[in-house]
Structure prediction request, 136 residues.
Amino acid sequence: MEDLIARLADPATTIAVVGATDAPGKFGGRIYRDLKAKGFRVFAVNPGRDAVDGDRCYGSLAALPEAPTIVDIVVPPAAALGVLNECAALGLERVWLQPGSESAEVLALAAAHGLAFVAGDCIMVRARPLPSVRHA
Prediction:
């Protein structure tokens, strides 16, 4: 957990938000926009969308142009299981399970894959604006 939280202070950190959306009130969109506003390079991942917040949206983690530092999962537990399997297959080792995405089965699978993960904590709370981002 400490490794993932420490990486949120690194300007080189990239974050894939699985479940990113433009739908008002959905956490996938709120998290995507929050991390972007804080200066992170963020990739939207959602097979049902072409764009999020005016940015290209990717249908899967495998379609990303580069491997993200952290995969932030903002989908229900049933879908999170597939995301974890994709992370393991792609060698993506750092996963943030947003509240609502975790279950006993999800946590067990993340551990079985040997993934470093955070669960039960919101990335928006832990991530602070990067030093390169100026706020008025």
